[in-house]
User: Fold this.
Amino acid sequence: MTEPIDKNSDFMRLYMTHESKIRGYILCMVNNWTDADDILQEAVIVMMKKFQGFDSKERFLKWALRVAHFEVLNHVSNKRNRLPLFSPDVLEAIQERAACEIQRQDVRREALQHCILKLRDRDQEILRLRYEVEATTQAVAQTVGRSADAVYKVLNRIHHQLFTCIRRTLAQESRL
Amino acid sequence: MNPRKEAYQELLSLLGAVRDGHLTVNQQTRINDLLTQYPKLQQYYVELTLVNVELRNYQNLSKKVHVDLLTEQIIGSADDDTAPLPEADYPRTAEIRDKAERRLAAFLDEQETLRQQQALLERRENTPSLGESLSLVADHFTVVLTRAVRITKRLAVAAVIMMVCFAVTRYVLNHRVVATLDEEIHAQWAQSPQDANLHPGLMTLEAGFAKITFKQGAQILLQAPCTFDLRSQNRMLLNQGMVTAQVPPQAHGFSVQTPLSKVTDFGTEFGLQVKDLQDSEVHVFEGRVQCRTGKRQGRPAATLDITKNKAGVLTASGSSTVRPLGTRPNMFVRELPDVNSQFGIPSKRLDLTDIVGGGNGFGTGHRLHCIDPATGETRSQYSYGKRPRGKNYTLVPGLSLVDGVFVPPASGGFAPISSSGYHFEFPSTSGGGWWTEVAHATVLNLGDTQPVSLKLGEQVYGQGNHPALLMHANVGITFDLDAIRQTFSGTRIRSFTSYCGISNRVRETGNPVSEFYVLVDGQLEYRQEIAMRTLPIPRVQVRLNPDNRFLTLVCLAGKENNGDWSFFGEPALELERVVE
Assistant:
């Protein structure tokens, strides 16, 4: 009687620990937040059903990514009225790289935190508006008194700076 | 082949078109060509996407500013004993600093040893001889070796300092305060919070109520059993349980993630229930909330806008509906109850009088509220006076946890006692008809006397945390145990308990006797003839199984029916959490 509740709790603990990694993995393959959230919810249902027979917490992430992978393929094949973004070959290549890179996501998150602090105050503010307040590019442009096109460019530059900084940090960590 | 800079820019531009939703077929083909041609672009795309995932969680990332300031303080203070440390806020800081200082001291000792060896070497170089020359070679070798050791140790010290910083950072991130615990009523936690400051992490309220306030201002009332995670200063995850949220303007956008949906507030008050990681129900009391669920089982993703006095129901199968609050307007506790008048305790004891009073069994009902046993209508105040029997059995559409009510026939015989067709054979009784509604009673006002309380022995009922279910004979009521189980998932109903008797403070009219019945699924579990002033006060305890569907309480007028003000005192369903 009580076993399902135990399993549910175990599942939720493991799921919450790895949620952002699973979401990131899916996003890499579909490049669309809405689709990624939908696929994640489908995947969670499958995971919840199959978790009853799962007994190795250490392998949870690997297992969850496999479930997510199949859900992505299901999603892609079900969208008959819309061409999938990636061709099968590209999708497979992206999937392999994402599965590998997701293992470093915790380190990447730490690096990102440091890299954000290295940005200029104004850039940090734009980033805050875009991602914390979740303002649209247009709204950010109005707030900071610039054109939407200029904000697009600034955001691209910020993304590039962060990306470069994170890569450098990860490379240093690898050397250590 | 390495991609040119233009290829990176082109890919970024094309991904922007994907994001904005106006990607052409040619552009799509170009994305695939680029990614096929340049494997490095694949890697770039994957890493960029994973950075974006983290950026979406910017609210948590931005707390790092505070963390870094703290880290700088700690590192700076290692060389300055007078520098204050925030040890009160971060108890592990002193421990971490001590370790760092010990490592630093060991490093300085090593430096001093090296300096002395260097000085000795220099002295020997000034007075060379054959033996000393050999010694010089050996010393020279030693110097080279010690230099290598020194570099290695410097690297080790640097690594230790980095690890310390990393540990502090992680510690502070995991221990940042996102909300405070304001108040508790009969609360039991799986792991009690150490103090009023609450941090991210899974928490379980096993019994009672708790009220918390997020740093950004949203106030949450939790009703057990409730498992949740306070994810940030304006966001939480609810795995199971019931919460009520009051969201002031500064917390606009407060959101509750459930396993299968996300509820976002737009300045409002709402209640949210998640049942066993599955269905969700949202009741909006003020303002508007938005619920978003993903596509499931062939159904499209749903976004529901739910406005005041509406309820949204999202099921695991993907269906979603919005309807008026209807029969469950008081399902959620909206204010912490007064501990001195609260009888129902979530996960422990469900107050049946509160259900009759239109509540959820935990204090949201109203005293004086009642059910007409002849029509099933709910009223805001009960009255006194003999009235005819009416239908055999009538449903109570206004109360979702009550199946129906009835007036047993005075002539006796089989009478229906549930909507599913259970019957029970009652004896003939005196009287006939009924005198007062089935009521969440308090003091009685009979019109021709001063208001008087219900009393058994020396205990007054209908006041404080001693509720009374008034059932002046002849009346019966059937509770729907399945509906109660479905409403309060995560708990099990163990038994029905109650005191019962005839109030000895209403009228002195002879020596009335009533017959009390407790039936489960039509089967007799308790029957007792009880006279006024029976001592000790009779107490009923009936064990209930998970498959029992209906609980029926009946009071019949006895042979002497003058003033038989029968009632159940503190009638309750005893609950227990289905525990992990």
